Amino acid sequence: MTNCVHDHSQWQARWGEGDQTGAVGHLLGPETTLKAISMVERGRTLDLSHVIEVGAPYMPPNQTPYQMTSGATARNSMKVRAAMGATNKVGANLERIEMTTHVGTHVDSLGHFSIGDYLYGDHNINDSVGDFGLIDLGIENMPPVVTRGVLLDVAGLDGGEFLEAGRAVGKDDLHRAYDAAKLAPAPGDVVCLHTGWGRFFMTDNDRYLSGEPGIERAAAEWLTSQDAVAIGADNMAVEVLPGTKHPEIMMPVHQHCLAEAGVHLIENLVLDELASEGIYEFCFVMLPVKFKGATGCPVRPVAMV
Question: How far are the Cα atoms of 42, 208, 211, 217, 233 from residue 251, in angstroms, in the given order?
């Protein structure tokens, strides 16, 4: 970045040099878990994830499409085993999947973004990025998440059913959404932003990828200052695209949340059902898949009410 100086000291000092877990590892614990579980009254679970399937939107060239091929089929494996002497007609189906871990509903690891050579926790790209994945800050370091989830419904801020691409959601917008939900931020929250943009996932992928409404950097800084442990949205990147200072400044929310604050980003969430039913507070459960060295992983977060 040109003429841009970053002061990392406040984030470096908070949980110490070499930290691997970020906010989820330090702000969540038995108290936040028990408090979240106590919120479940009806025993209902709402799925907040998309189906990952062929044709799911992805951002080339860095991201690659989801592809599935058969590694074995029941018909052919039955023949192979019969030739080996099996008489019980045993068939098995098996597949191979190729994809980036950033297709579909997924969570970013803290090592996904850098500021120059700087990575979260005083790690750096020279020592912490290997030829076969991240040496530090891979998604395997992210603990399971059971905490309070908060839905901030900003979709109708401009009078429609959804915000338009390039519409930046600022701090004042977040305050209005909290007020409308009659909630206040609390340490350990997972904040889920409903922009309405998710309606274009798999219905108009070109539009979905052309840009998006989302938070700007100042709004992200406010959420991390309130001790949110993760921020998610019903779009591809959580942050507004194109950004407010594009193209001079690109992906500043990713840089702040992941590299500075140690706060995970959850992308391509499904939030329409929560919003339509006015469910703004819930027990949020998400179990990251421990792909060692990965910059993210597919997830299936749920809201329990």
Answer: 39, 17, 12, 9, 15
Q: What average pLDDT does the chain have?
A: 95
SS3 assignment, position 207: helix
Residues ≥6 apart with Cβ < 8 Å to 71: 94, 95, 96
Three-class HEC string of 57-94: CCCCCCCCCCEEEEEECHHHHHHHHHHCCCCCCCCCCE
pLDDT digits (tens, 9 = 90+) for 138-178: 999 999 999 999 999 999 999 999 999 999 999 999 999 99
Structural domains of the chain ordered from first start: 9-52+101-304 (3.50.30.50), 67-98 (no CATH)
Task: Name the token pair of 106.
Answer: 């997924």
Closest CA to 28 of 213, 176, 189, 205: 189
- Cα gap 214→166, rounded to integer Å: 8
- What's this model's pTM, rounded to 2 decimal places? 0.95
Confidence of residue 1 (pLDDT cuts 50, 70, 90): very low
* Per-residue pLDDT tens digits for 250-295: 999 999 999 999 999 999 999 999 999 999 999 999 999 999 999 9
Distances (CA, A) of 246 to 168, 252, 291: 12, 10, 33
d(CA 277, CA 19): 39
Whether 135 contacts 128, CB under 8 Å? yes
Q: Quote the CA–CA distance of 154 and 160 in Å, as a whole number.
A: 10
Number of other residues whose CB lies within 10 A of the CB of residue 95: 10
Please choose, from the candidates 173, 206, 207, the residue with its C-alpha nearest in 3D space to the C-alpha of residue 191: 173
> What is the C-alpha separation between 303 and 135, in angstroms, rounded?
32
